[in-house]
């Protein structure tokens, strides 16, 4: 007797909904037990704010407000610099006031990104730059791992073992306090470098495995056609290895986005640090952290979707 595929699919969806409903119900019961009062209405203002954008003082100085009140001039206290600000709706200082660097001078009304969106943008920048750097460095280290030169392969193997054998947080501290101090790197640059170096070790191993998964006959055939070793690697081996390594690479890049939350220890206001600041001002930890988790999930889900599209496209090539 043949089974009905539609009935089987409906049963699978029913099981999925029952399990998902059970998880949601369990969370609801847990919040009831701790007598937690949900305040989701506090969250939107930390995503999109209507408080406008403040114009702050770039240096210490004295304020001179125009007679019509539509412009102000800031004259440096111990120098000759001066700036004039006209594009504002609300004046926050008075004529003759002494202000210091980063003090608010005026406010331009309108919708602006809240701290959570600003933190999300910082996370995106750090993750994107780290990803590109990790791809390049990981490719070089991966090629070094399969090199016939024992010195090159040994150095590449040492790099992978040292980086994978130490915690990412420790590496971030080393880059921030030691490498960053010696090379005079900003916190942002040190954070990107630490994430790139850490991720590159895993990317190198993925690329090594992908290259070794390509049959040796492919290299021999390419060399017999007159291609040099670099040409054969570039045009024959690496394209095949890339198709094999795309799923694990996608998983590693998703981990990179999540690992970027650790740079908050470097005084960088990424999404995680922005979440901590919002929690301290709203006293709504559950709402904030669920929102932050959803924003991370949005990033990783979008990346997973793009990788699946790329996999399907490569499968038809």
Automatic annotation (TrEMBL):
InterPro entries: AA_ABC_transptr_permease_3TM, ArtM/GltK/GlnP/TcyL/YhdX-like, MetI-like, MetI-like_sf. The keyword rRNA processing does not apply. The keyword Magnesium does not apply. GO terms for cellular component: ATP-binding cassette (ABC) transporter complex. GO terms for molecular function: transmembrane transporter activity. The chain crosses the membrane at residues 12-30, 118-143, 155-179, 185-204, 288-307. Residues 120-307 form the ABC transmembrane type-1 domain. It is a multi-pass membrane protein. It is found in: Cell inner membrane; Cell membrane. Keywords: Amino-acid transport, Cell membrane, Membrane, Transmembrane, Transmembrane helix, Transport. Gene3D superfamilies: MetI-like. One of its GO terms (biological process) is amino acid transport. Belongs to the binding-protein-dependent transport system permease family. HisMQ subfamily. Part of the binding-protein-dependent transport system for glutamine; probably responsible for the translocation of the substrate across the membrane. NCBIfam families: HEQRo_perm_3TM. This is Putative glutamine transport system permease protein GlnP. It comes from Solimonas aquatica.
